[in-house]
Each structure stands twice: as C-alpha cells, then as structure tokens.
UniProtKB/TrEMBL annotation:
Keywords: Oxidoreductase. Its EC number is 1.1.1.37. It comes from the Bacteria. This is Malate dehydrogenase. InterPro entries: Mal/L-sulf/L-lact_DH-like_ah, Mal/L-sulf/L-lact_DH-like_NADP, Mal/L-sulfo/L-lacto_DH-like_sf, Malate/L-lactate_DH-like. It comes from Thermodesulfobium narugense DSM 14796.
Length: 352
C-alpha cells in the first residue's frame, strides 16, 4: 500500500533533513526537489528512498555537503568540471547550467564532470535545457552493477543515457533509460517490500538468473537487449567517465557498501539550441505533428493509447500532484527513522 503526502511538505521536510548535514539551504532544496519529482513520476527507485543513504554518505565523508566546484578546462562550448564530491543532484544542476550558458553563446554547450556522486533522475537536467528552447543529452556512469554480455561479475555501471526534446503542444519527449533491464534501486524496493523479481532482471553470484532480490543484490544486473544494452553501457561509461577523468568500471565508489568513499562518478551533459537548425515555431509545429501522427497510428489489439517516451511519467506527475506523492510503507518507515536520527521528525499528515 502506498501512503500519499503533499509534495511541498515532502520537499520542505527533506530540505530540513539535508540542512542538518551542513548542506546550504539552496543545495538542500535542489536535492529534495529532484528526489520528490522522481516519486511524483512513479520512479520510486530514485526518490526519497535514496535519502537515508545520501545522509549516511554525507556523515561518513562520501559526499561533500559544501563543495567547491572547479572549472579545470574550458572552451567557448565546453567545460571540464571537478565536482569536489558534491551531492550528485547539486553537481548535475551546476553542470547542465554551464552547458546551457555555453549553448546560449555558441548554440552548443557540453559539460564533462569528474568527482561526482549519484544524481538521481536524468530527466530533470534535460528539462533545464528544454525550458530554454534547447534539446538535451545526458549520461552518467555508476558503480559496478551490471555484468557484461556473457559475463557474471558486475563490472560495468548501469550508466543511464537520456535524450530530451520539447514536445510542442504535447508533453516533452524524454527518453531516460539505464542500460540494464531494471535498476538496482528497483530491486532494493522489492527487497524492502519482500517481493520476488522477474528472472530476467539479475543473476546471482554464480551467474544464474534469480527471482530473489537478496541474491540479486549479491550478484549483478543484466543488460537489456543482451548485447545492445551492454554496448550502450560501454558508450555511456566512456562519455561520462573515461572522457572526464572520473572513475570508471571497478574504479568507482559503491553507493551503499562504501558510504565513506566518494564515488568519483562522471557526467556528460549537452545542451543544443534548436534555433541553430530550425525556427522555434516551425519546430513546435513539426514536433506536434510528429507526435500526433504516432499517437493516432493504428493501435494493437487491447491497446487503449500509444504513449511517447516519458509521457506516462508526466501523466503520473499531474495525477500525484493532485492526489499526493505516493511512498511505500517501508520507505516511510525508513524516513521516520532518518528523521528521528537527525532531529527532524517525519510527522507529515497522509492525504489518504
């Protein structure tokens, strides 16, 4: 059963919790807002369920709550940024802001980041570009979670890669996907809820598919589409980590097992002005027709509606803003424990 809460109250509570770790209020609110946005969109794996491990990592030194961002190398269109082990969401927002700043000047802006941490849903950073009449591309590497095609040991990250475009009269088109069948966070949620997982999600330590989330967390995630997902994971790692000077493959800190160790993840963020190719009004007209043509195409038997990438998440967000942000019972329990530990009681009133 999901318990629903007011989104603004959740953001405010999480902001106060992060402030207790010495994080500046603006950075705390940025992080809290992105976490709650994930829950609003039904991406609970990257929502407030992550807050307890973030706080633990700050306390033990894995995340720097007061980072000093440094521009190590810069051109008219690019920036190489040292994030100083900042909270991932704070570093991600800074990096995309720099990319947008460059794109405003040269039509294309790219930020490459080292010394980063887990930064949540990639869609948030793409939307920053979309709101400026740009399209965006972003990727990050993660600590080793994914077995390569034909392997049994977690050596690659799930390395999400994302693309975002304005949608004209429709919702923006945002493809935000990991290279694995699912995320480790989703398996963690199944573990919290004592649920089994599909056999296609992960292998145990011997490389055998398992439906037990406990065994899956000891083993490795599987790439989607076999060799295709594996290939995307490789490219995502090169773009985000090899290029930036961040840790790659096994040379990264593990989010849960090593809370005292900075992850040293890399990010790659690109923003491109639409007007470099096409008039904005013409683009909006064409993308509207493009989406409409797809959505009005013949449906398979039993299908009520054809959705564009990211559309379902936008619909969920609209519904949940009205009905309340849904959190699992075990997530609420962990948040209450976290609140008690830092002196910010989780006493929000459920909406259901």
């Amino acid at each position: 059963m999901k318990i629903r809460f007011d989104q603004k109250e959740l953001v405010e509570w999480a902001t106060q919790v992060l402030k207790k770790t010495s994080m500046p209020e603006s950075d705390a609110k940025t992080t809290a807002t992105i976490l709650v946005k994930a829950d609003l969109r039904g991406i609970e794996t990257h929502g407030l369920a992550r807050l307890p491990i973030y706080v633990e990592r700050i306390k033990k030194g894995g995340i720097n709550p007061k980072p000093n961002f440094k521009i190590l190398k810069e051109t008219s269109a690019t920036s190489l940024i040292d994030a100083d082990s900042a909270m991932g969401q704070v570093a991600g927002q800074f990096a995309m802001s720099k990319a947008i700043e460059k794109a405003n000047q040269t039509s294309v802006g790219i930020s490459s980041v080292r010394n980063g941490n887990h930064f949540g849903i990639v869609a948030h950073y793409l939307e920053m570009a979309l709101n400026k009449n740009m399209f965006g591309i972003a990727t990050t590497n993660t600590s080793p979670l994914l077995a390569p095609f034909g392997g049994r040991k977690a050596i690659l990250g799930t390395n999400p890669i994302a693309f975002g475009f304005p949608g004209g009269q429709f919702h923006p088109i945002i493809l935000d996907m990991a290279s694995s069948v699912t995320s480790r966070g989703r398996i963690k949620i199944a573990q919290l809820n004592n649920e089994k997982i599909p056999l296609t999600w992960a292998v145990d330590e011997r490389g055998i598919p398992t439906d037990d989330p406990n065994e899956a967390l000891k083993g490795a995630l599987l790439p989607f589409g076999a060799h295709k997902g594996y290939g995307l994971a490789v490219i995502g790692d090169i773009l985000s980590s090899v290029l930036s000077g961040a840790g790659y493959l096994i040379h990264t800190g593990e989010l849960y097992k090593e809370p005292e160790k900075p992850q040293n993840l890399g990010f790659f963020m690109m923003a491109v002005k639409l007007e470099a190719f096409i008039d904005i009004d013409e683009f909006n007209e064409r993308i509207t027709d493009f989406i409409k043509t797809i959505k009005e195409s013949p449906k398979a038997e039993g299908t009520k509606e054809i959705f564009m990438p990211g559309e379902i998440e936008y619909i969920r967000e609209s519904e949940n803003i009205k009905e309340g942000t849904p959190l699992g019972e075990n997530v609420v329990k962990e948040l209450k424990e976290l609140g008690n530990s830092v002196g910010i009681e989780f006493n929000l009133t459920p909406k259901n």
